[in-house]
Amino acid sequence: MKAKKILFPTDFSTHSDAGMKHATSLARDTGAKLIIVHVEEPPTAYGGGEMYYGIPEPDTDALQRMLEAVVPTSPEVPYEHRLIIGDPATEIVRLANDEHVDMIVMGTHGRTGLSRLLMGSVAEAVVRRSDCPVFTFKQPHTVKAKKEKTAGE
Question: What's the whole-model pTM score?
């Protein structure tokens, strides 16, 4: 597979960023440029009129610094950053179409049951809506070793 552009969305979580190794490997092996994007959801307003309390705007400079800290794991992979405001799944698919990316590589939290129903899945929405292939990566759960009892316990 020859690719020119691979889109890597991040929400700055360990689940999301665990996929960077995969995105870097694919970009390096196919000669692609990585487009690293964070989509910030717009502030939500509660109530109206006299009872309006808006959630404060996110600090764009802090988000930009966080985004710039997300880089490929291999220095020879070219990349660029994009900070976008909007619905994450919608904006990821829009950017992929606008940039004519060959693939989207993204981490997933792997939620199931009620938490998935309540919170939704950005990765699932991207898979359903995208015109290009989407590689999702779920970080494996680590099992903590049981503490061995010593003779004094």
Answer: 0.79
